[in-house]
Specification:
eight-stranded mixed β-sheet
Length: about 375
């Protein structure tokens, strides 16, 4: 199934995320503001706008399904954690990022909501946990890169982090925290016969041909997908348990423009989106991962105007030809989020949030009124 529809709520959206029950939407309208919308009914209801906390553009945000906390990363070199109080207001909590002397470029919650990881323009990576006695988020750092970190993602087990950026190398680091992670979890990932790695240890390093735009772990944690700027998706198979340490790399070439965001629908289906303005589906077959094609149903361009009308229109545009988009999005897709099994949403610089469904399961936005192109 193709696009379910869309709603347009801003002039441009740099990033978005959903609450655990998909009743609320958080986004950054390509500036320093955090907008939270209520989508539990038939319409999109603007609920809260927070404009004074960040001083520069919010580059990334994430909403933890486990803790119901929002984290925002901004080009003002800070990350804020937003907590909802009984009065319905969201209030920010400070995170201590001493070595962030460049923009905060990416951020992700761990699956259990106990910590988040943030990347910086100077290559620094912080993993932050909450300290209740001081009401702030304090981070431990490791320097895996020397230049901008574009992509981060926690392993489903919480004990590994995938990271990549402009250095054209994907790395996996240990995020083991003895206070938060059990020995059973560490053994399931790293095996019974090896000692769990220390925090910040580099576990996997895979050189690639372009800078990294996005990365994502599969639900099982056995496959890591990486999108790079030379229009390629690389599938990295990481052995777990007794086979930990084995790595297989399988590149998939794309015909279109690069992808900027990735999400797994399940272990055998990957969806990506980016500069083509049209989500792309990849699936695992007997011969490996293959591109199944774009998901948008391209609309027919308007060819009903006669020659006189076309000449008048062209004269009004100083001789330039009319540029018509045949996709739901009319500008770069900036982020993609899974909202249910087989259903996801995309946001773009055109200010649209589009809803997509690649399965026949129940639509979690069945009540929502969506526009059609």
């Amino acid at each position: 199934m193709a696009c379910r529809g869309f709603f347009e709520i801003a002039s441009g959206i740099s990033t978005h995320a959903w609450s655990a029950d998909n009743s609320k939407l958080a986004l950054a309208p390509n500036n320093n503001e955090l907008h939270i919308f209520d989508v539990s009914g038939n319409d999109i209801v603007p609920a809260k706008i927070y404009a004074g906390e960040h001083l520069d553009l919010i580059s990334c945000l994430d909403w933890s399904a486990a803790s119901n906390l929002i984290v925002t990363a901004s080009q003002d070199r800070t990350c804020l954690v937003w907590r909802e109080y009984e009065d319905g207001e969201w209030r920010p909590e400070m995170s201590v990022l001493k070595e962030f002397d460049r923009a905060a470029t990416s951020v992700r919650w761990s699956p259990d909501g106990s910590r988040f990881v943030a990347g910086c323009g100077n290559g620094c990576i912080y993993v932050c946990t909450y300290h209740e006695d001081q009401s702030w988020w304090l981070g431990k750092t490791f320097n895996g890169f020397k230049a901008t970190v574009h992509a981060l993602d926690f392993h489903p087990s919480n004990v590994m982090i995938a990271a990549g950026g402009v250095e054209m190398e994907l790395k996996v680091f240990s995020s083991v925290d003895k206070k938060l992670d059990s020995k059973a979890t560490a053994k399931a990932v790293f095996g019974d016969n090896t000692k769990p790695p220390k925090f910040g240890d580099e576990l996997v390093s895979t050189p690639l041909r372009g800078w990294i735009e996005a990365c994502a772990w599969s639900p099982s944690g056995e496959t890591l997908a990486v999108a790079t700027h030379e229009s390629r998706v690389t599938m990295i198979l990481v052995g777990l348990g007794g086979s930990f340490g084995t790595v297989e790399v399988h590149p998939v070439n794309l015909r279109g423009l690069p992808l900027t965001s990735l999400v797994f629908a399940n272990d055998s289906t990957l969806v990506g989106a980016g500069y083509d303005m049209d989500p792309l589906k990849l699936a695992q077959s007997a011969n490996g991962w293959v591109v199944e094609g774009h998901l948008d149903e391209r609309k027919q361009k308007n060819v009903t105007r006669n020659v006189k009308q076309q000449m008048i229109d062209m004269a009004a545009r100083a001789g330039q030809a009319l540029h018509e988009h045949d996709t739901t999005h009319e500008n770069t897709i900036t982020s993609i989020r899974s909202v249910a099994d087989g259903q996801f949403t995309t946001s773009g610089l055109d200010g649209r949030i589009a809803v997509w469904n690649i399965s026949n399961l129940q639509d979690c936005f069945a009540k929502l009124k969506l526009s059609q192109r």
